[in-house]
Amino acid sequence: MGSIVERALLPWAQRVKSRVNLPVRLSWGERGASSLSLGEFDAPQVEIRVRDASALPLLIDPGLDTLGQAYVEGLIDVDGSMADILAVAHRLAETAEPEAGLLGRLRRRFAHTRESDSQAIQYHYDVSNAFYAQWLDERMVYSCGYFENGDETLDEAQLKKIDHILTKIQLQPGQRLLDIGCGWGALVLRAAQKFGAHCVGVTLSKNQHELARERVKAAGLEDRIDIRLQDYRDVKDGPFDRITSVGMFEHVGLNHLAAYFGHIRSLLKPGGWAMNHGITSTDAQDGETRHGGGTFIDRYVFPQGELPHIGTVLRTMQEGGLEAFDIESLRRHYMRTTQLWSEAFEARTAQIKPLVDERKWRIWRVYLAGCAWAFEHDEVSIYQVICRAAGQPAQGLPWSRKWIYAR
Predict the structure, then answer these.
(1) What does the pLDDT look like over 312-371, one tens digit per residue?
(2) How would you classify the pairing of strands 76-79 and 46-50?
(3) Do 86 and 148 fall into the same domain?
(4) Is 182 annotated in the active site?
(5) Among 31, 33, 279, 390, which residue's Cβ finds the most Cβ atoms within 10 Å?
(6) Same domain as 243, residue 142
């Protein structure tokens, strides 16, 4: 392998060094006997070890997708802190040929049948509850936390997020709440316990469904909370006073957003409110931005996931018969959330590795660190949008946002 690797890497390394100066050493051969540098440095911050010659096409025209693929498939190993590794990956992606960057912006659209959506959700969420418990907060909330002051722990930020949502939608005792994509049940448990609501939570994850039901039973709230293994399109027993969807609409599909919001509209009581909390693209055309990464996400992490721009969210919400009346960006909050997830994942490597195979561990390691980078650098964003049925008189809406922060 040695001569093949050297012949391929030497001209590429020269091209990279003519464009950027990276504290990176590439090594290959037995015990890294052969190596070359991608910049001038006293000591490398990152070392990339080529384990297999099939990694070469993925390295020589690098994008985030190809670099991630080479790592996940075990064709390369990478040493260094995750912050340095991500910084190097993005700098390397900048050296790719222009055509590769354009391809990264293309967005595939998926059919999103009930069967394919169920399979995609179970692929991502049914790794194991023990796996998620290693790096999530104590309530296992797998969505953006809310850092009211910026110094909260992950546990504190996730509880504040739930209270922020339930306060924001003005949930009242006795009201009926539907939570679409309820996860392990943290929001509906809080809604019933603190706010006195009657709740329905739906998920397509069998693991989430089982644990959420166990938690409801342990809390003595089976008469107040109904957890269902059900597609949101099959919820027919409205109306609901309030509807929440937190970290779920990323799975709906760009071509199905208007119908998704239309179904929410059909389930709302007159005067009812809904809130959609979801990740968005920062590309106005609903595509990938800058260095992409979408192919990696589609292949390894979120099959069939599609991110709309916030403009698309508001347009399709209106097409679905809903009026948006409060919009809040939480990008910096998700940056911090994913940073804490990634730090916990790194810190608990010894406990996590026995729960998954090496490939799965590599996928999640790259994914969590990559998400933190993407939110920090405005490559993706996230918004909470409160809405109600369109076409209603203006009366009944708050005059200011003071109600959100009242305690």
Answers:
(1) 999 999 999 999 999 999 999 999 999 999 999 999 999 999 999 999 999 999 999 999
(2) antiparallel
(3) no
(4) no
(5) 279
(6) yes
